[in-house]
Design a protein that fits this description.
The chain is an alpha/beta fold. It has twelve helices and 16 strands.
Length: 397
């Protein structure tokens, strides 16, 4: 987003910090193929500045010299890459009935993962802290930061201001968890925002605008605009589950007519058993299948209307489905129904609107939480390989 007003003058230290981020981002995007000369060309920074910053990043164990490449003329090029031997980041997902924690290297490789069940009446601080300690114990490097993805409205101070469907209000998760984790930097992020960050981190096309539609017990959106995570002045950006769609149904929040009353995962599934869902997916025409089909259709209609509104407001053409519904058997038919409806609302000269699944599926939250921690500690969402796709093969901590 273009910054319209500046309230502070640029200082020598702030300019240096920005240039540090620029060089680190460039090295990460190069994937071991860039030399100092390439970084100079890509960033436009002076040679002396790049040399000084690269030397500092090497000393901080963020960048390493990754070998030499022979040239037809002159000296071999010294290639640069991220140093994945020292810094580790932990991503944590606090979900309905479980907590998942995974440990990542700086370049996004998942080294270990663990999932435990959790009590439903609290964010389970002690359990999260214990998992972080287990993630930290065997690592050859050091834990540089911890990212925790949670539902609800989350401030940049790590406080969960409200999570209506969980009954959480003003939970100081970041500060309390940091104390239990022996002072490790802990950064809390909304779950939909975490999925959006995972999409940015995995994009090799330098995607600048991403909108994630999170559907689970509640509905939210993670919005990245022009490369910046947008959270609004009161951190309520993306609280789309409580927009008024005109129904007479009462929501968990106490209001009438919220989107969640027809499009949240429990509402769509209703009282359908797994057998009823299977019959519906197989094209069954019994009463349960027809009722389920009606709920899917109604949810798809309201979601398509919402996405059309967001597209016209934010100039977005691709949306990503995240959350529990993305892995639910009802996720694909819902997406098909939404995309069929969106196909009917394409103005001449405009691109087709599309709703697709998240890149990492079930791993998007822990990956995005770790990306958030990296962003908070290093100032940038580093472009990382989709190493977490093989997360099923990594050992538990």
């Amino acid at each position: 987003m273009t910054q319209l007003r500046f309230t502070q003058k640029g200082t020598k230290s702030s300019l240096r910090a920005r240039n540090d981020v620029l060089v680190l981002q460039c090295v990460a995007a190069g994937g071991g193929r860039f030399s100092r000369t390439d970084v100079i060309r890509e960033t436009g920074l002076p040679t002396a500045t790049v040399s000084e910053i690269v030397a500092d990043l090497i000393e901080r164990r963020l960048v390493r010299e990754a070998g030499r490449e022979a040239q037809p003329v002159g000296k071999p090029r010294v290639l640069l890459d991220l140093d994945d031997a020292h810094h580790r980041f932990v991503g944590v997902q606090v979900a309905n009935e479980r907590i998942t924690a995974s440990r990542f290297t700086l370049n996004g490789h998942m080294e270990a993962t663990e999932t435990v069940s959790r009590p439903l009446d609290a964010p389970a601080l002690t359990q999260v802290a214990d998992m972080v300690h287990r993630m930290a114990a065997p690592t050859p490097g050091r834990i540089t930061g911890v990212g925790v993805a949670v539902p609800g409205i989350v401030g940049d101070d790590g406080v969960i201001r409200a999570a209506v469907n969980y009954g959480w209000h003003m939970v100081s998760l970041g500060h309390e968890l940091q104390e239990q984790c022996d002072g490790l930097p802990v950064h809390v992020v909304n779950d939909a925002n975490a999925v959006a960050l995972s999409e940015v981190a995995l994009s090799t096309d330098r995607v600048n605008t991403v909108v994630v539609l999170w559907i689970g017990t509640g509905i939210g959106a993670g919005i990245v605009l022009d490369g910046r995570l947008y959270h609004g002045g009161a951190f309520r950006s993306g609280e789309i589950g409580h927009i008024d769609i005109g129904t007479s149904l009462r929501c968990h929040c106490g209001l009438i007519g919220c989107l969640e009353t027809v499009a949240a995962q429990p509402t769509i599934r209703g009282d359908a058993t797994d057998q009823a869902v299977a019959r519906y997916l197989a094209g069954g025409d019994d009463q349960d299948s027809r009722a389920l089909g009606e709920r899917v259709g109604r949810a798809a209609k309201e979601i398509a209307r919402l996405l059309s509104t967001l597209a016209g407001t934010l100039d977005v053409t691709e949306f990503i489905l995240g959350g529990p519904l993305a892995g639910d058997p009802l996720g694909p038919p819902l997406m098909r129904a939404v995309n069929d409806l969106l196909a009917l609302r394409v103005m001449e000269g405009f691109e087709q609107l599309v709703l697709r699944s998240s890149t990492l599926g079930t791993h998007s939250l822990v990956f995005g939480a770790a990306a958030h921690a990296i962003r908070q500690e290093l100032g940038v969402v580093i472009t990382m390989p989709a190493g977490a796709d093989e997360a099923g093969d990594v050992p538990a901590a």
